[in-house]
Write a structure and sequence with these properties.
345 residues, five-stranded parallel β-sheet, Rossmann fold, single chain, two-stranded parallel sheet, alpha/beta, 15 helices
């Protein structure tokens, strides 16, 4: 949702947003191993509602030639720094030409921090649990080179505000003639498996209005165990709202899809993917009511990616990721030092 927020801000600066997505090879060369494959990332970015078009295989260093090729007036990046493998600012050329704009980086989230949560079996990131010391110690190591913290890669806490939710929400009410479809789950580490599922659900109706019910952290932890969810309820809310197929989100939806819920939202159809449905606390089927009404449908997303699999990818590459973050941090700190020296002069 940090990436989505950047795209939202960029889209507000113009009329058409084209997002350049790097290949796996380019990322591996300049940053370290990517978590998702380029195909997954292309599809993922395309599913974000502020994106008009993607430019696959975009070069790591943004040039005027690339901007002209896609007919762009300017490019936008967050107010953190991106550096090439040899420590140069990747936006130097477009900045000099005056075709560069900046947007605010989203506080309290980074790929670094999410990777840290996956590697540590702690629940400190859940919205209702006191911070645990192992997690604090780990986040200190994870985004920190030997010389201290870089403000760009370091870890800080995400604070949800009503304003943030408003910026992400579509604000559209269901209209007469819309098919109101309800889906529920954790939607943790919002990924391509979720996108494929929501896209399939979206295709079930002429005018779909999809409401996604998100379970609270404690509920997800009850049926998923370990340190799930990796992202807390506030973070999951924004991630799901950024998806172009979703019209509305229920924050902290009940695990059992009740008659009350179905009547309140005037739901026509309830969909679930091919993942296992864990019984409710009392052993009952959470989809009993929609099944009784004959409005329950299983939808095969055709994707086998799950949150578990992403966590396994991370664990497999653990050492490479830790090395990647420390190198990134060291490069950023060197730039900060240089900037400080320039100011002093």
């Amino acid at each position: 949702y940090g990436h989505s927020n950047q795209l939202r801000q960029a889209r507000a600066m113009g009329d058409c947003l084209i997002v350049g997505v790097h290949t796996d090879e380019e990322i591996a060369k300049h940053k370290g191993p990517p978590v998702f494959t380029q195909e997954e990332r292309y599809k993922m970015v395309q599913a974000i509602k502020w994106v008009d078009e993607i430019a696959p295989g975009a070069p790591y260093v943004t040039t005027l030639e690339t901007l002209d090729k896609y007919n762009c007036d300017f490019c936008v990046h967050g107010d953190d720094i991106t550096l090439t493998i040899d420590g140069k600012d990747t936006y130097e050329e477009v900045k000099t030409a005056g075709r560069y704009r900046e947007c605010k980086r989203t506080q309290g989230v980074s790929t670094t921090d999410l990777v840290g949560r996956m590697l540590l079996m702690t629940k400190a990131h859940h919205s209702n649990i006191d911070e645990d010391l192992d997690y604090r110690k780990h986040t200190d190591n994870f985004g920190k080179g030997p010389k201290g913290h870089s403000p760009w890669t370091g870890v800080s806490q995400f604070l949800q505000t009503s304003q943030k939710i408003i910026q992400f929400a579509s604000g559209k009410e269901p209209q007469p003639g819309d098919t109101i479809i309800y889906v529920a789950g954790a939607f943790d580490l919002f990924h391509i498996g979720h996108v494929d599922f929501l896209e399939k659900v979206h295709q079930l109706a002429e005018r779909p209005y999809i409401i996604a019910g998100l379970h609270f952290d404690q509920e997800v932890n009850r049926y998923k165990g370990k340190n799930y969810p990796i992202m807390n309820i506030h973070e999951r809310t924004l991630s799901v709202l950024a998806c172009r197929y979703v019209s509305e989100v229920v924050i902290g939806a009940p695990y059992a899809v009740t008659a009350d819920l179905l009547d309140h939202f005037k739901v026509t159809l309830v969909c679930h993917g091919m993942t296992e449905v864990v019984p409710d606390k009392d052993g009952s089927d959470p989809y009993e009511e929609p099944k009784r009404r004959g409005i329950f449908q299983l939808v095969d997303s055709g994707s086998d990616l799950t949150t578990d699999l992403i966590v396994q990818r991370i664990i497999k590459n653990r050492l490479e990721f830790e090395a990647r973050n420390q190198k990134k941090e060291a490069k950023e700190l060197a730039v900060l030092e240089a900037m400080k020296r320039l100011e002093e002069k």
